[in-house]
Amino acid sequence: MKNKLLITVLITSIAFNLFLFGRWFIFERAYEPSESEQVILSEMVQKTVEGEDYQKIAEKENIIAIDANLDKNKGGAFPYYLGVSVRTDKQTHLFSCDDDQCSEMESAGTAYSRYKDEEPSLPLKP
Fold it and tell me: What is the pTM of this model?
């Protein structure tokens, strides 16, 4: 009886750990940058801020935040699954590498910004 209980607990533990590993491997790993990708994303943010497209946006709109992101599920090869989002009070501007070497960042389009129709969350009000 004791052995059956021990084997049941062991099998349950192994199954649960395999489930957690599989969930991480399939779903979460595609959105978490590695250490080298974090360095690359930081450099991409710097190139974005220094670029002409960003300067044009900064002249016309109030920039609220800059966010680096990666999405390995959207397809494409390195570095095309890396990107930078520049959020303004009007919309979000998306930036991506212009070539395989990522020598410059180019505007890849725009997206809806939640700040367009809502008040910003910051500064926090007690």
Answer: 0.67
DSSP H or E run through 4: helix 2-23
Residues 94 and 62: their CA atoms lie apart, in Å, by 15
Summarised one tens digit per residue, pLDDT across range 80-102 is 778 899 988 888 899 988 888 88
* 117 vs 113: CA distance, rounded Å: 8
Q: How far does the chain reach from its first CA to its final CA, in angstroms?
A: 59
Nearest to 83 by CA among 58, 57, 109: 109
Place of tokens 């979000």: 92
Residue 63 CB: number of other CB atoms within 10 A? 14
Query: For residues 96 and 26, what is the distance between their CA atoms, to the nearest angstrom?
Result: 24
